[in-house]
């Protein structure tokens, strides 16, 4: 597999030329004829770009021409769709793959999340899967030849009450039994690892300790979307933006293709990686899913000097829910819990924003008074047990990769690889066998929080 | 969407209410009733509770793409 891990430079270059449609602006076509620079990123290519001047760099991905038929059509150019397409082409040699995106690459949650990656899950099915993903993050920049800025700055789940503490200990022990690193920090240990937490002012809730995963951290989300798109495109995947899938056509009991806003496209197999729109896909196919769509919002302050070197998470209900980290640009990034009711508006309710800020300021009183520069929200595909679904959907050749809830960014590398294997071979690899859709009917739920079939915590 | 109209208490702030679930098709199997949800871009039929008011259960019709509330009624008919 590693053998195929590099992006073939020649492929990127050739496609950029082949695919310029006749009505493409001249400059773009002319650039293709310039003798071929190596678009593989390296110190060498930087040097060559410097010498060559303007016009050296190619667009990251090409594929503006929609063909009539594909072996696999992937719906949704978010992280999961792009990674699935990349692995289909790279690992399984599927040549005719298209990713159809109704808006833009990276417009969805892959570009809206708070970039945290970790594998500190309680249930074995989840922690093995997310651990596989975390390992892949560690080498992803090399595999994609694109710097995704994986930053293992540690993720600390905080205990603010006597009830939080045993819950964290239990989770940490489960992880360690599975060979995943976890450290339970008492108050002194925590203050040593995060001196920023040392109370300078009276704190509303005492910090009792935390569960630290050192390899957890952040990854630059936009780079993940662009890196996968570029690498997939280099393997010949067509990435078609502004192309919404509106229906599935069937023949002889299987799907024959997709109806899109750009016409009908024949497809051997179809993968829906539509994240926050997956509930609507269930309705479209006439198979209601155990999914409800909820908003999650996040916000970022004006940039300041380095203050917080790790990721702080406090997600126990009852006394402020917030998670906080500092972006590489210096902004304090904050998020909290869901807005609490189904929505496609991507607006975010005001009282939740206030709650998140309160929770964050409780943790880090130092940030009180900073101005919030931006606030945004994304639609989350919340399943009834909080875990994802990667399985067939209704037809033998239709697949769904969804139910990522508010934690699917960290899953992208593992999900792309496993989903591609399922689609290419017809058999789900062990890693995702527990993510089958039938688990809701058979009672094999994967409910980390034990909250029952409701995405919203009461 | 910043307020909901409780048929019993009148227009109140959203924070007084708690959403419970989107309703599945009526008459489905117990499995469908518990786990499945019907999602439509322009119509969501939901159960809410006025937890910080009369504590009545409400049937709410909303447009989840715009946030507009299309109608609110007490679940199970008129006031207790
Ligand atoms: C505010 C916020 C913070 C988050 N923080 C984290 C975090 O810190 N860590 C973490 O792991 N996860 C986090 N998440 C969750 C994570 O972002 C998502 O679970 C994940 O990105 C979803 O997968 P995706 O990237 O494939 O989705 P998306 O990027 O949403 O991709 C789905 C794509 O499908 C397209 N689409 C939908 N319907 C159609 C159609 N009919 N035809 C064509 N295209 C269609 C959409 O336009 C979209 O581009 C967060 C989410 C939000 C909203
Ligand atoms: Zn009321």
Question: Would you kindly provide a written description of the structure presented here, covering whatever features stand out?
Answer:
The complex is a heterodimer of chains A (about 450) and B (about 80). Chain A has about 450 residues and is of the alpha/beta class. Chain A folds into 2 domains: about 10-110 and about 220-290 and about 385-440, FAD/NAD(P)-binding domain (3-Layer(bba) Sandwich); about 150-220 and about 290-385, D-Amino Acid Oxidase, Chain A, domain 2, CATH 3.30.9.10. In chain A, about 30% of the residues lie in helices and about 25% in strands. Chain A has helices at about 10-20, 25-35, 45-50, 80-90, 125-145, 165-175, 185-195, 220-235, 280-285, 350-365, 410-425, 440; strands spanning about 70-75, 95-100, 115, 155-160, 185, 210-215, 215-220, 240, 245-250, 255-260, 265-270, 290-300, 310-315, 320-325, 330-335, 370-385, 390-395, 395-400. In chain A, a hairpin with a 1-residue loop joins strand 17 and strand 18. The termini of chain A are far apart. Chain B is built from 1 helix and 6 strands; from the N terminus they run βββαβββ. Helix content of chain B is about 10%, strand content about 40%. In chain B, a hairpin with a 7-residue loop joins strand 4 and strand 5 (about 55-60). In chain B, the strands form 2 sheets. In chain B, strands 3-4-5-6 form a 4-stranded antiparallel sheet, with no helix packed on it. Chain B has a two-stranded antiparallel ribbon with strand order 1-2. At the A-B interface, helix 9 and strand 12 of A face strand 3, helix 1 and strand 4 of B. The structure holds flavin-adenine dinucleotide and zinc ion (ZN). Flavin-adenine dinucleotide binds near residues 78 and 244 of chain A.
